[in-house]
Amino acid sequence: MNPEVLIAGAGPVGLSAALVLGSSGVRVHVYEAADILPNELRASTFHPPTLDMLAPYGVTAAMLAQGLICPHWQVRMHPSGDRAVFDLSVLAGETDHPYRLQCEQSKLAAILLDKVRALETVEVSFASRVIGAATTDDDASFTVEQNGARREVRGRYAIGADGARSAVREALGIGFEGDIYPETTILATTTFPFETRLEGISNVSYCWKAGGTFSLLRLPGLWRTSLYARDGKTLEETLTDDGIQDLMHDIVPLPGPFEVLERRPYRIHQRLAATYRQGRVFLAGDAAHLNSPSGGMGMNGGIHDAFNLAAKLVAALRKGDERGLDLYEAQRRPIAQDAIIAQAHQNRTRMQERDPERRKRLLADLQATSRDPAKLKAYMLRTSMIDGLRRAAAIQ
Questions:
Q1: In a domain, 67, yes or no
Q2: pLDDT tens digit string along 225-274?
Q3: With contact defined as beta carbons under 8 Å apart, do 22 and 123 qualify?
Q4: Confidence class of residue 178 from pLDDT cuts 50, 70 and 90?
Q5: Does residue 1 surpass a pLDDT of 80?
Q6: Cα dihedral across residues 10, 15, 16, 22: positive or negative
Q7: CB-side exposure of 93: number of CA atoms within 13 Å?
Q8: CB atoms < 10 A from the CB of 12, how many?
Q9: 379 domain-assigned
């Protein structure tokens, strides 16, 4: 197959772009460095507009069968249980999916891979690392390393959806300015049924506790927790069995240990690419923007990038209309900066607040918003990413 579009990365962003392009008859070749799709727990929250986008391809239905609907989410004081609850049903009429869906990113990637493999227009190569990228007036190219050998592949256009350490972005010399938050987040998963011990808990809950914070996100059969080291404790001490159990017992003081399935530390970046386009090569997803996971906007924003860009590439390739290609950056980069990164930063800053009186005021403000129908709907349109997409569409 002579590909028209090259894609680096077989994550949700790259495969979403491949699905849209391939379904429109565009020939696509996806290159993935890993031998197989990764299975570790990464993102898990899908917002209403993302579900709307994926639905026509049968992806949303498959995800609903494997995921858990989240009709509301909350910010909560622990252990008192005082909380502000945000009901997504107010979005009925604005979206076909007025809820969040909790489903592992790995499940989405597997669904997408099955969908694109069913298309004659898409080819996916694993164990094929993109190590270079270039562009001319007529085409785009990747340098691909496979089985110890390197070769150059060409297409009309190329997409770098190869993550935070994007080789495509680096090869093109595109800046990726920003910073790293000082705290380290520890992801720990457990089968413990928090829903039976924490009254009124939502499937997505952001919680303040004395001297710190944690979050609880429910998935089928397990809960994922985001934990932070106590003041004065090192990361190494916190990652021990005793350290993790200590933090888990802050949530529910069990007489015995929690069953912990997975633990993983990670640092949070806040970064934005200087440009999303160089010639015939484009960036999307984590290759273009990174943000705090608070609010679950990063992966969703990357999928929104993919759908926006793929539609414009279809128009360029099938209608000869390249005018929309510059519009991709104009529509997506400001939203990443002003809506995704800024909103995620605001969410993270709120939950990092330590002063008890300020926490009470923040919670009171959130409760007032949740009880006012007009304010609630405006807030949910923004935090569910619908408002950002509408603002982007208005940029012409």
A1: yes
A2: 999 999 999 999 999 999 999 999 999 999 999 999 999 998 888 999 99
A3: no
A4: very high
A5: no
A6: positive
A7: 2
A8: 27
A9: no
pLDDT at 140 over 80: yes
Which CATH number characterizes residue 332's domain?
A: 3.50.50.60
The token duo for 341 is 């990164």
Q: Count the domains in the chain.
A: 1
Q: What is the pTM of this model?
A: 0.96
What is the residue-averaged pLDDT of the chain?
96
Report which residue type is found at 193. P
CA of residue 155 relative to chain centroid, distance:
28
Cβ pair 158, 5 in contact under 8 A: yes
- Residue 124 falls inside a structural domain: yes
Residue 50 within a domain = yes
Within 8 A by CB and 6+ apart from 291, the residues are: 269, 270, 297, 298, 301, 336, 340, 341, 344, 345
Return d(Cα 297, Cα 284) in angstroms, integer: 14
Question: What range defines the domain where residue 162 resides?
Answer: 5-71+99-177+270-353+385-393
Task: Give the model's confidence band at 345: pLDDT under 50 very low, under 70 low, under 90 confident, else very high.
Answer: confident
Q: Pairing state of beta strands 100-102 and 204-209?
A: unpaired
Cα–Cα nearest to 49, from 310, 293, 291, 296: 296
